[in-house]
Amino acid sequence: MAKMTFIPKERLKNVRIQRGYKQSEFAERVAMDQSQYSRRETGKVAITDEEWERFARALGVDKEEIVETEPRVINIVNNSNNKGNSINAFEITIKAPNHFFDDINKKMDFIIDKFNSAQQ
């Protein structure tokens, strides 16, 4: 099972709090549902470049003051064989820049397209 984790955006949160905004108030200011904003601030959802720009404008700061480009993490865990029996477990953790995972996704899409074409 693979799992990606994003790092909470502490710089964004700190500046929001310094400017006196509750999370719900700031979400409204940037025209976003509070739960959607919360997912971005806590790192559960990636923040797009456009959103970083919008957040910076709403806070009255340069984007560089709030942007955090922490690497994403992927954990690969295997604890069973093809028959579902338990075997020696292993876990691999990879930390890499965001573009690393974008490149992997593009390559996987290419492989899947080739596989689907071959099946037809």
TrEMBL record:
SMART domains: HTH_XRE. InterPro entries: Cro/C1-type_HTH, Lambda_DNA-bd_dom_sf. CDD domains: HTH_XRE. Signal peptide: none annotated. Residues 12-66 form the HTH cro/C1-type domain. Pfam families: HTH_3. This is Helix-turn-helix transcriptional regulator. It comes from Flavobacterium macrobrachii.
